[in-house]
């Protein structure tokens, strides 16, 4: 009984990790989302309360980034890990040669416009990027949205195929599914052969949980086929 419970726990953890890699929605659900704490030099008190962060803790984090004035901050974002990253206002950033011939325009928060092969329409609207512009940029690189793992700003692109053969990934996915299906079959056999009602119910529950995990993985697996 203890071994079965341990095996189910390990398999469940493994399945969740795979789903997190494959789906942004699942990552958002399990890991949470980033939170903007400062925008245009203004502390967002509601977001501070949401993250249960005090002003002393915020200032300590800013000082660790060599930032001592809130007014110098364009954006401060709390990552899902709890770390706070800071983007200084344009006129507070170190000057480069490029800056000497560049207008000081308001800078928008860098944001993803494609994730996991899906267009982030809300982020595109925020950045002022049109679908036509995005399609043209992708066409220049002979890509479609489905080819893109991650794209940001104007325009950084990371493809699914970076030094990875997708067929190998698909084979790995299928191997995991096959293993889970075998475990489900074995649990069903144990349930049928068990004379103890408590053990029988445990095997049936484990089998049911694995079936649900397999169903969750199937769309993810098939979408990459």
Automatic annotation (TrEMBL):
Keywords: Cell membrane, Membrane, Transmembrane, Transmembrane helix. Residues 22-152 form the YetF C-terminal domain. One of its GO terms (cellular component) is plasma membrane. It is a multi-pass membrane protein. It is found in: Cell membrane. The keyword Transmembrane applies. Its main location: membrane. Pfam families: DUF421. Belongs to the UPF0702 family. This is Membrane protein.
